[in-house]
């Protein structure tokens, strides 16, 4: 199934499938905050015009210092990126030719960057009945690889793995000189998130990657950061193009790091939506993942592959994320972002219509 490999930009999906794109589509395939960007960005929009006319600080000192202060670490342990995507690409370059373990199903970029850098790729595939990490099995594989990628909460399932489990894997990584790349692109949506950054001191092989584009709805601006051992950060910084972050992204980041109330409001909003959606899906007979994030996997258990269901939704103007390019899912689930009440209501209407045609 040769469908686009990412969510967002739904016209590509309609084009590939050969369907006319309805006028009023709702894109549930991009996992972006349903509240949109915080108001502070609009308030400062005009000042960005000034920023545009100067070269950005290639070190992004102010933002870096802010992150370091927030996390009680040194600036030497922080690297800013043109989105988490750039930081992951740098990790890929650092791991060129090495053996890597991907815990699947997960974000498809890990595999892409590892392949681009000639890595030898190993998989641990989670069972899609419970999505458990079999710590014993993974620890065994860690003995034979140079790096392991884990996404927490995991994209596409939304499942959050507790710190206790991650520490078991980290211990194995330290013992076997294996990097642990922890992608926390969606960490700030998790209601009871346990911060892993303090563990960096105890586990020098830990590399944490965070995105600011999801929580703050700025995928078009591109901003993320990485926390790792100072020597790893130095190595990555040497691989990064000069002025990789533009001055608007830097200024935006400085403003957004202060938006703690907005993050709390978002968590509350998403939780409230889940309280509506979870019982609705249960009542209708759909199966969904126990997500701790702002997206979830869903399937109609009557079918193995969700191909016809995806088509039906697209015709109705509902864009879901297909899962054909996720090893371990292979099209058996669809991923949906949690959007605002009005949009979720329309989704519920279309879901009801589907069930009526099927049962
Ligand atoms: C798990 C995960 N990590 C990283 C990224 C990249 O984020 P950014 O927009 O900051 O580049 C994404 C984007 O979809 C993602 O889903």
Automatic annotation (TrEMBL):
Q: Which cofactor does it need?
A: pyridoxal 5'-phosphate
> What superkingdom heads the lineage?
Bacteria
Report the record's Gene Ontology biological process terms.
cobalamin biosynthetic process
Q: Which GO terms describe its molecular function?
A: pyridoxal phosphate binding; threonine-phosphate decarboxylase activity
According to UniProt, the reaction catalysed is: O-phospho-L-threonine + H(+) = (R)-1-aminopropan-2-yl phosphate + CO2
**A Pfam family in this protein?**
Aminotran_1_2
**Domain Aminotransferase class I/classII large per the UniProt entry, residue ranges:** 24-347
What's in the keyword line of the UniProt record?
A: Cobalamin biosynthesis, Lyase, Pyridoxal phosphate
Q: What class of enzyme is it?
A: lyase
Q: In which pathway does it act?
A: Cofactor biosynthesis; adenosylcobalamin biosynthesis
- According to its UniProt record, the EC number is 4.1.1.81
Q: What job does this protein perform?
A: Decarboxylates L-threonine-O-3-phosphate to yield (R)-1-amino-2-propanol O-2-phosphate, the precursor for the linkage between the nucleotide loop and the corrin ring in cobalamin.
Q: NCBIfam families from the entry? A: L_thr_O3P_dcar
The protein's name: threonine-phosphate decarboxylase
Origin species: Niallia nealsonii
């Amino acid at each position: 199934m040769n469908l686009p490999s990412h969510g967002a930009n739904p016209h590509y999906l309609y084009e590939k499938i050969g369907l006319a794109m309805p006028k009023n589509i709702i894109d549930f395939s991009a996992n972006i905050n349903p509240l949109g960007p915080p108001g502070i960005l609009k308030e400062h929009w005009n000042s960005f015009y000034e920023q545009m006319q100067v070269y950005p600080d290639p070190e992004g000192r102010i933002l870096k210092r802010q992150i370091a202060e927030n996390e009680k670490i040194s600036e030497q342990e922080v690297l800013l990126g043109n989105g988490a995507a750039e930081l992951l690409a740098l990790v890929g370059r650092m791991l060129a030719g090495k053996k890597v373990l991907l815990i699947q199903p997960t974000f498809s970029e890990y595999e892409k960057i590892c392949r681009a850098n000639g890595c030898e790729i190993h998989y641990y595939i989670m069972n899609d009945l419970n999505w458990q990490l079999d710590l014993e099995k993974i620890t065994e594989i860690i003995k034979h690889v140079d790096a392991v990628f884990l996404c927490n909460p995991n994209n596409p399932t939304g499942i959050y793995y507790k710190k206790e489990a991650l520490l078991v894997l980290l211990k194995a990584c330290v013992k076997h000189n294996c990097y642990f790349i922890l992608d926390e692109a969606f960490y700030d949506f998790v209601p009871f998130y346990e911060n892993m950054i303090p563990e960096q001191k105890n586990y020098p092989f830990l590399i944490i990657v965070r995105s600011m584009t999801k929580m703050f709805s700025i995928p078009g601006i591109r901003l993320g950061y990485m926390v790792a051992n100072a020597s790893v950060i130095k190595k990555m910084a040497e691989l990064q193009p000069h002025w990789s972050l533009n001055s608007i992204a830097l200024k935006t980041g400085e403003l957004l790091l202060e938006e703690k109330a907005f993050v709390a409001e978002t968590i509350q909003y998403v939780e409230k939506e889940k309280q509506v959606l979870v019982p609705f899906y249960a009542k209708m007979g759909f199966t969904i993942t126990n997500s701790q994030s702002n997206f979830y996997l869903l399937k109609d258990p009557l079918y193995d592959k969700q191909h016809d269901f995806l088509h039906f939704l697209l015709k109705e103007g509902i864009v879901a994320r297909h899962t054909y390019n996720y090893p371990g899912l292979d099209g058996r689930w669809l991923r949906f972002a949690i959007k605002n009440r009005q949009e979720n209501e329309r989704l519920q209407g279309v879901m009801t219509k589907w069930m009526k045609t099927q049962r």
